């Protein structure tokens, strides 16, 4: 069984311009799903929430604004001491988090050593996972 890459970082949950608090966030990358990165947010008083999105989206967000759907990532701050701002959105609800860029770069570097960018298709069971996902979608459509 292949190893996975995991890290825990502290992110600022930006409630408003005046209010933010730090929360632990687990980062996880598994070669079984080689295109995705998972972030599990541990908000006080709530069950952990996990978001999965493209590893390449996170990488692109280091260099400039990235994402135009439910996940949007933007680098902020002066050169040498920069952060990433991550906006997650479902419908009209959104949450914004800020994290130092260095731990994210270190995490992505470890994922690249495990599965080099551009070689994802040779890892995991891409065809099998696609088939299972399509089967679930079709079953849900037929049930509803």
Offer a quick outline of the entry:
With 144 residues, the protein is an alpha+beta fold. Helix content is 28%, strand content 38%. It has a seven-stranded antiparallel beta sheet.
Blueprint (SSEs and pairs):
Layout (H helix, E strand, L loop, with lengths): L4 E10 L5 E10 L6 E6 L7 E6 H9 L7 E6 L6 E8 L2 E8 H14 L11 H18 L1
Antiparallel strand pairs: 1-2, 1-7, 2-3, 3-4, 5-6, 6-7
List keywords for this structure.
144 residues, 7-stranded antiparallel beta sheet, 3 helices, 38% strand
Describe this structure in words.
The chain has 144 residues and is of the alpha+beta class. Helix content is 28%, strand content 38%. It contains three helices and seven strands, in the order ββββαβββαα. Strands 4-3-2-1-7-6-5 form a seven-stranded antiparallel beta sheet. Strand 3 (36-41) and strand 4 form a beta hairpin. The protein starts with a strand and ends with a helix.
């Amino acid at each position: 069984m292949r190893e996975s890459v995991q890290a825990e970082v502290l992110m600022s949950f930006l409630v408003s311009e005046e209010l933010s608090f730090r929360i632990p966030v687990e980062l996880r990358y598994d070669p079984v799903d080689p295109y995705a990165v998972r972030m599990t947010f541990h908000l006080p008083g709530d069950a952990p929430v996990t978001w999965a999105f493209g590893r390449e989206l996170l990488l692109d967000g280091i260099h400039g604004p990235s994402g135009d759907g439910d996940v949007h990532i933007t680098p902020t701050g002066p050169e040498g001491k920069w952060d990433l701002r991550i906006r997650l959105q479902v419908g009209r609800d959104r949450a914004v988090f800020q994290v130092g860029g260095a731990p994210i770069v270190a995490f992505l570097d470890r994922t690249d050593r495990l599965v080099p960018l551009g070689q994802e298709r040779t890892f995991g069971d891409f065809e099998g996972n696609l088939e299972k996902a399509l089967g679930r979608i079709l079953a849900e459509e037929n049930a509803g």
